[in-house]
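Worked example 3 (structure in, sequence out).
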């Protein structure tokens, strides 16, 4: 956890992380229980993707959502899942902006892309079970405070 960030900031990041996790799990379960996996495969084929891709997408959404919920390599999971939502947004572009449009618009996937990138940039947040700096953006050291610079120059 970034010790320089306040505890309320870390809790806020955890809220972002867990809400994204719940969303990804809900997306996966929608494919399983509402559309069914064979129905999702058929939809994938109708938009020009191999139907078999429905199964790894389902697995990625479910396992990624669980990982986000628990805080297991959350920032990396958010980054890795982002292309799934980029494709979802691309698929929905012809339907218009608002996701309540017939066939679903692209505003909801676009928001989830932004939230996923934000989580990747911010870190795992409070109560994450497993963290890693792999694929994490590099942190630049904070600039020295003017008072500290003056004190260093006086020595």
């Amino acid at each position: 956890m970034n010790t320089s960030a306040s505890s309320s900031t870390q809790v806020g990041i955890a809220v972002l992380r867990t809400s994204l996790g719940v969303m990804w799990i809900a997306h996966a379960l929608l494919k399983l229980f509402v559309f069914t996996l064979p129905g999702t495969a058929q939809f994938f084929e109708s938009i020009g993707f191999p139907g078999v891709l429905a199964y790894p997408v389902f697995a990625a959404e479910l396992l990624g959502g669980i990982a986000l919920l628990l805080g297991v390599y959350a920032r990396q999971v958010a980054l890795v899942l982002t292309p799934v939502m980029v494709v979802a947004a691309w698929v929905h572009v012809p339907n218009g902006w608002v996701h309540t449009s017939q066939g679903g618009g692209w505003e909801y996937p676009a928001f989830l892309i932004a939230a996923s990138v934000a989580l990747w940039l911010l870190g795992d947040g409070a109560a994450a079970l497993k963290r890693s700096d792999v694929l994490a953006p590099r942190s630049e050291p904070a600039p020295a405070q003017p008072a500290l610079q003056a004190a260093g120059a006086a020595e």
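Notes: Residues 7-133 form one domain. The chain has one domain: 7-133.
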